[in-house]
Automatic annotation (TrEMBL):
InterPro entries: CHP03086, DinB/YfiT-like, Maleyloyr_isom, MDMPI_metal-binding. It holds the Pfam family MDMPI_N. This is TIGR03086 family protein. NCBIfam families: maleylpyruvate isomerase family mycothiol-dependent enzyme, TIGR03086 family metal-binding protein. Residues 16-134 form the Mycothiol-dependent maleylpyruvate isomerase metal-binding domain.
Amino acid sequence: MTTEPAHDPRPTFVRALDQAGKQVAAVRPDELTGRTPCADYDVRALLGHVVSVLHKLARVGTGGDARGVPDVIDGVADDGWASAFARARGEVERVWADDGQLDRMVELPWATLPGRDVLEAYTHEFTVHSWDLAYATRRLAELDPELAGQALEAFSKFAPPEARSEQGGPFSPVVPVPDDADVYTRLAAYLGRRP
């Protein structure tokens, strides 16, 4: 009997980072104060959060504590976000290049998971934040629907609507959308955003 090799989430993770990187690079300085679907973030703060997530992912990949990284990186020049993202991404890819990382248990602020599950979770986070940026800057046509479909399937398993409340948390109650809405609109609405 042969066993299937364990799934390597890195190729899909790279696609999600490619998409997020394109969205980050497309943001113009005059768009930084625009509103986003994330209630707590304007475009600048959302960029700072996306870069922060990369720093957190690099830190946990080396056994560090992500809680030592602020949720939003600031102090980046208006035209420096693409470079900040690229530098942080390079560090993440270096840290996670070793195949052994995928089976190592990684401690996150919200769970302890095998590395492969961590990368899958962050693939979905970058997919959602790509939509947030695209929505805020009106660049929705540039998004990969396959990534959204995978994220929607994953979130439906670990963030069911009945586990949410009006009092907050990472996901608001599901927002109704038409049955024929595109997959990114359905994903955003499932997470409580109002597309």
